Amino acid sequence: MVASAVFILDLKGKVLIARNFRGDIPMTTIEKFMPLITDSEEDGGEQAPIMSDENGINYLYMKHSNLYFVALTRKNSNAATIFLFLQRLTEVFTEYFKEVEEESIRDNFVIIYELLDEMMDFGYPQTTESKVLREYITQESHKLETSTRPPMAVTNAVSWRTEGIKYRKNEVFLDVIESVNCLISPQGNVLRSEILGAIKMRCYLSGMPELRLGLNDKVLFDANGRTPRGKAIEMDDVKFHQCVRLSRFENDRTISFIPPDGDFELMSYRLGTQLKPLIACEAIVENYSGTRIEYMIKAKALFKRRSTANNVEITVPVPEDADSPKFKVSVGSVSYHPEKSAIVWKVKQFQGGKEFLLRAEFGLPTVKNDDLDKRPPISVKFEIPYFTISGIQVRYLKIVEKSGYQALPWVRYITQNGDYHVRMPEPVKSGNRVMQPL
Length: 438
Prior knowledge:
Keywords: Cytoplasmic vesicle, Membrane, Protein transport, Transport. The protein is of the alpha+beta class.
């Protein structure tokens, strides 16, 4: 048994969409959902994603925008499968309606019921791939006089790809994208860091090709007793698209799959390793008698000179009542955003090893005590092409199709910021002056 019923509610608990798949739970049971949410909030603890009532009915829910997606089940249900289905439901709705919120649900209830009927049968997930669903459930599908025959993908073992796809030019584009989460102290020490990676693909291939992807996987080299030519990495929390043959990966670490057509994320991974900062920000803040505050921000690219960070954006928080801004920068442009209480320094291209300086001065019309614990950090945005901080590499990408055509694989590497923050230092008082006025 999986899900007995699925509901979509607004934030007040009003039912927008309801679908009873098994008929073993009264639909009025959903009325107990909001009281359970309220009770958990009053208890002061963290809200659990699974709640149960006195009748043994389980409420599994996730919040998306201004909506609750809720599944009701009896005991002995597979919670992981239900949560995965609710997540896929929001992804499919996003593909159809762009924005998944209360208004879009109300405007598209007919097609939502059709999607629910196709995506789940008697409480068990069925077709959840949006590319396949789009072939026979369109925005105007409720107007059709006769039902169309579902594509072969619905009944095939490969439910995420339709047979008979043809392209004049067969190509595969593979992007290895790594996001760096990093928290840096005012002295430049890394307090917390991790890498979140994803391999995204765009496939324009004819037929039903089989792809094999090889990475510089440390577990693979250790199992085979081989020594890698370069660096080998050990990935944590690896998650694959449903097209990957998991048994093959578990046996010999081969990533083998028949890809969906078009764009999709093949896999994601995490590396909880200690990193060095890619872009360091050294800040000096001087508070001049409570009437003026001055900033000096030194930004330095700590990666290799042959790499260049594009569209670097450094956001420096300032007091809410700051006014009369004055700026001086060695490169790029700087602007004051009073709605964010911050200055934004933009550098279009930041070459490795380079160092740039920003100086800013503000007037302070009111005297306030600066709460050090609540002072926001400096945030840094960037994108470094042709570079991965983990050292992950695509060793090979083999494409096999029975017709024997030649295909062109393209690989691109990108490192970008995730939650990349530098804590602000304590302001220097005017008696210990370190900067000259602008």
